[in-house]
Amino acid sequence: MNPTLIVIACGLVSLLYGAWAIRSVIAAPAGTPRMQEIAGAIQEGASAYLARQYFTIAVVGVLIFALVFWLLGALVAVGFAIGAILSGTAGYIGMLVSVRANVRTAQAASQSLQGGLDIAFKSGAVTGMLVAGLALLGVAVYFFVLTSILGHDPTSRTVVDALVALGFGASLISIFARLGGGIFTKGADVGGDLVGKVEAGIPEDDPRNPATIADNVGDNVGDCAGMAADLFETYAVTVVATMVLAAIYFAGSDHLSATMLYPLAIGGACVLTSIVGTFFVKLGGGTNIMGALYKGFIVTAVLSLIILLPVTYLVFGSFSTTLTAGATAAAEAVTTAAGTDGAAAVADAVAQTGTAAGITFTPFDLYLCGVAGLVITGLIVWITEYYTGVGFRPVRSISQASVTGHGTNVIQGLAVSLEATALPALVIIAGIIFTYSFAGLYGIAIAVTTMLALAGMVVALDAFGPVTDNAGGIAEMADLPEDVRSTTDALDAVGNTTKAVTKGYAIGSAGLGALVLFAAYTEDLKYFIAHSDQYPFFQGVTSETLNFSLANPYVVVGLFFGGLLPFLFGGVAMTAVGRAAGSVVEEVRRQFREKPGIMEGKDRPDYGRAVDMLTKAAIREMILPSLLPVLSPIVVFFLINAIAGKGEAFAATGAMLLGVIVTGLFVAISMTAGGGAWDNAKKSFEDGFVDRDGVKHLKGSEAHKASVTGDTVGDPYKDTAGPAVNPMIKITNIVALLLLAVLAHQGV
Amino acid sequence: MNPTLIVIACGLVSLLYGAWAIRSVIAAPAGTPRMQEIAGAIQEGASAYLARQYFTIAVVGVLIFALVFWLLGALVAVGFAIGAILSGTAGYIGMLVSVRANVRTAQAASQSLQGGLDIAFKSGAVTGMLVAGLALLGVAVYFFVLTSILGHDPTSRTVVDALVALGFGASLISIFARLGGGIFTKGADVGGDLVGKVEAGIPEDDPRNPATIADNVGDNVGDCAGMAADLFETYAVTVVATMVLAAIYFAGSDHLSATMLYPLAIGGACVLTSIVGTFFVKLGGGTNIMGALYKGFIVTAVLSLIILLPVTYLVFGSFSTTLTAGATAAAEAVTTAAGTDGAAAVADAVAQTGTAAGITFTPFDLYLCGVAGLVITGLIVWITEYYTGVGFRPVRSISQASVTGHGTNVIQGLAVSLEATALPALVIIAGIIFTYSFAGLYGIAIAVTTMLALAGMVVALDAFGPVTDNAGGIAEMADLPEDVRSTTDALDAVGNTTKAVTKGYAIGSAGLGALVLFAAYTEDLKYFIAHSDQYPFFQGVTSETLNFSLANPYVVVGLFFGGLLPFLFGGVAMTAVGRAAGSVVEEVRRQFREKPGIMEGKDRPDYGRAVDMLTKAAIREMILPSLLPVLSPIVVFFLINAIAGKGEAFAATGAMLLGVIVTGLFVAISMTAGGGAWDNAKKSFEDGFVDRDGVKHLKGSEAHKASVTGDTVGDPYKDTAGPAVNPMIKITNIVALLLLAVLAHQGV
């Protein structure tokens, strides 16, 4: 039997799990009529959001589909469609379940903590397993269809381009969900607070505020649909890039099919361990919710560690076979060169095949790379918890700084956000060195693949957050008893930490995944250059004109240009939140003015209109920033091409990709960690924060107010700009890959 | 006559100008006894600061001197001493003049605006001309001594190492002045405000606050001594790196002496044009202070543009001679290789000599590169003014966001700070492409040299700021009439803009200067490798093991490692300000407790103790962050050497240098531009800010309070962390250069 079919079966198991979990969530009691009324409004809002968002995506998607079809052909365009549709489906179903689980969680929380935890986590797990399952299925099925049914060679450009386009389809959804969604959620949050708390003097989650429902919808938009699309993209793109690297490195080798299968096999195995892990999310006797969630996570990680050993053996048929990456390509290039123009050409060929040539390793080395991926995940989770958790120095230092005012709170928060980048970066650096020394670039790719294979579990932890957040809001609005609210609060507090932790994971994996994409870019380029007889555009590009060395100023130019993108993008995204919030303020003011009965509780606000208007504003605001990563590789390439020729243009574009990763990683980590720390510093005042001088500061104190300022600043940091940097990094990379494909295809 | 002597004469002219300007400042009337009393306290505080700071520097300096002597010999150690002593002297004299000019400015301002402007600017010009003059003299005289008197070959390692060590000496002062000084100034500012305004309820600049004098001293510490040391370092380091590049590229060529002289000649010529420019800082009939300052700046720039034409002709004897960079070295390496091991070695040699080989250009091309440097300077000034000036969109958007609260003010400020990085980066990118296409890496170096040749004028503009700031404080404390205060306020407002603009210039030039240093690193490395018979440590490093390509994971590791440094450094520096401010709070509380008469105005606070205590705190706080740039290159080199061998270690270290520049440039620009924008957004409320809805917000309004929060956040951003990133970038680079020298010297 074709082993890809086993992988496909694993993917189908995750869909079955999803179907089962959806049924069991929906079967739970949905609470009082008042609760259902509120939940109904949130569901209505979510549908309004999804309808407009997906309509826009559909329009843009059809245009891109047509463009890809025209430039690269039908099979590639279909790949694009598969990626977009599956990622969209995961987010869509996840959202629909999430806005139905919230009220059921509130209801269950009125019975027991375990009950609330069960429903909320199961709802998150639906999204998680759909993400991992559909991403895996998308890649595996299409690869199977292309190679085993349509009979294309696995290393052919058609297959490579179609898979890359699949990643690009996922990217389309991801930028909409992360950037548009991020602007939506924080626009609703900030705008709703401004006009509700500040102007009208009504509390958060007050049903009289027309923006309240938008705020609740926004929680799901960000941490359910947003995270789903983000990790779907990273997952798909990383698996694809790993397969592309395998196709290039092992072309003509006996191990080609095994090395191309291996990332899919890892994905299949870890989907199963993720499903098993979900059943270990149990409180046991105590009330340690975080402990229960980590139990599930650790079970998944340990089981993966174990199961990958036999998987590796089965895929390669041995632990000690010698795999040689790039040997064929290198030998071929050098031989060709030697046959033609003598020493200079040999030098060219050697330089072009570069470090990939002739690295050897065993399947067991690859297994160790996978283990490294799991260790990196664990360390990043641990570091993020340190920087954003209430009990540790960073958050305490922000709480302490709040005592002396708004300004010092923000200063300390910024200090923490900057500092928080160092350890994750060191972990990533260590991971690169370790895995590279074991199995070269392919080893790095396997480590990232393994890291991402846990995406099902990780997304479950993240998508758990908005359900509990909503449940708290519903309990508040439906005037449920105080103890229900405190149960949902306990769940929600944990949700804040899991949201921060999973964002750290998402960014870390995106950073490493982008490196794999960058490797795919350079290897692709080498391939086209080595076969420039078939790809006339690449004729004349030699190692003298294509020079990725840092000593080449065009490389430096590329690094700077790439480096500026996350900063500019972050700045524009933060401004967009401000403007979207402004439009919420206008809308709410208008509703208050036109329906004076709202404030008296007599008239029902028009929640749907607020949601729809904000969705429109968010989509309008995302146009400019989302064009940045799409256009930058194209502009840089053609600009430098005009100035200095093709070779330097390829070098500058490649360097740009790395520039985006280098600054993007730091910008994104600093924003998400800083935002999480500010958030929890604010929370530390809810139970009363005891400062250095022994004074206790409670909710409502001046120190608490200062901490609220920090939290407000952290919101667009951690929920809009920071997470949106992820898809931005990857889109820049994948557009560059597609650009190569288009140039190769045109034969200009 | 040796043309270096003409350059030395130009340097001496700037010292003469300095002496004349000092005399004329000191000769001005020093105001009432009360004013002199206050100024006396500031002078006392400045002396206390300088005494402790320079004592610490002396101790550290002697240790490093001994180390350099031991590792690299006497001449190199003397170079280090020259750099440190001259930079220290410029800052020391500048500070002493500045704290005497402040009271005289206040006195002159009571007569006329032009009078106040005259003294304040002249005081700034003293620092400026000392910086440019002493930096030029240091390099030129020592070069003359080494080559013409001691008879060393200009391209010999002794001369190169001695000049690099001179840059390192300047770096020592620079990190103390920028980082220690930055922590001092903002510790005094934030701490003084916290304990004075917030706790004791007394206004800023109230003589009862023991931290008031420290605050006034701090202004000079940051913008006079700090900027002086920073630009002294950038100036010296850039001129040295340019000369080193010339020595490598033109070794054995007829044009060696001309290309090594050219940067010095540019420096000499522009010192003269800067001096001429100072005489054009006149109000004319109006009251446009900024216009008057820009008049001086523009005269300097235009005169430089003109005078560089004949200077270029005189240095090279023609505009159209063909200069070929690196031809000899390349040819030599290839010939040697061909003579030994055949094709592979030729490939090695070709790869190693790389892009530098055989680039040809004319002296007129170099002149155009110089013009590009001036244009870059102009554009950066213009962009910085746009992002930090009161009349433009960015600052207005922050003012507008203040209307909705502290949080939105900070969000918008951060958005502006992120966005503000894009245009300067694009200007730098364009500058690199333009100058490289005209004259290769040497062309880039000449552009930066020309940019920095204006340092005298630029430092004058910056050091003008603290004088007017202090003058305002003195006017306040001495109860001078309202109209004097409004004159000093007008001068001070301009000072804020010039401070922001000159910081943009300092960072832009530091970023480009660091590129030149990076080029020096790679060229040095190539040199050692090509002559590994003399430098046994470099034996066995070939193009296969030394691979600067982005496809090499150790290069990526280096980029990430370098990239994290500015973030970590910035975070630690921000935290340090918080802690230093805390120690000010303790000290002031103690004085209030022990001398209750202070608050009643009966007892004199112990200003000196507050200054001394804060100086100690600042020095303690700077230890950890200042070790980062010093140790990082060493740690990275030996770590990667242990893991992957020498070649990869050199590659990773080199990549680290570029990583620091790439993220450092963005971090520094975002911090200084953001801080300036926050500052001016606060100022916009002083005349009343009219928001989008037509409501006017005055000083004391809620919106104004929100803008004060942003300003507080911006303070350590723009005055501590941001500017300190400059020396950090350069120290990392220069330590790496010294590391190469040490490795070459040890012959291990």
TrEMBL record, chains A, B:
Record keywords: Cell membrane, Hydrogen ion transport, Ion transport, Magnesium, Membrane, Translocase, Transmembrane, Transmembrane helix, Transport
Membrane topology according to the record: Multi-pass membrane protein
Record-annotated membrane-spanning stretches: 51-72, 79-99, 119-146, 158-177, 235-252, 259-281, 293-316, 366-384, 410-434, 441-461, 554-577, 623-644, 650-673
Cofactor: Mg(2+)
Main location: membrane
Record bears the keyword Ion transport: yes
Keyword Transmembrane assigned: yes
InterPro entries the UniProt entry points to: PPase-energised_H-pump
Enzyme Commission number(s): 7.1.3.1
Broadest EC class assigned to this enzyme: translocase
GO cellular component, one term: plasma membrane
One Pfam family of this chain: H_PPase
Protein origin, superkingdom: Bacteria
GO molecular function: diphosphate hydrolysis-driven proton transmembrane transporter activity; inorganic diphosphate phosphatase activity; magnesium ion binding
Catalytic activity annotation: diphosphate + H2O + H(+)(in) = 2 phosphate + 2 H(+)(out)
Site description Determinant of potassium independence, residues in chain: K499
Localisation per UniProt entry: Cell membrane; Endomembrane system
Assembly behavior: Homodimer.
Described function: Proton pump that utilizes the energy of pyrophosphate hydrolysis as the driving force for proton movement across the membrane. Generates a proton motive force.
Protein family according to the UniProt entry: Belongs to the H(+)-translocating pyrophosphatase (TC 3.A.10) family. K(+)-insensitive subfamily.
Protein name, UniProt field: K(+)-insensitive pyrophosphate-energized proton pump
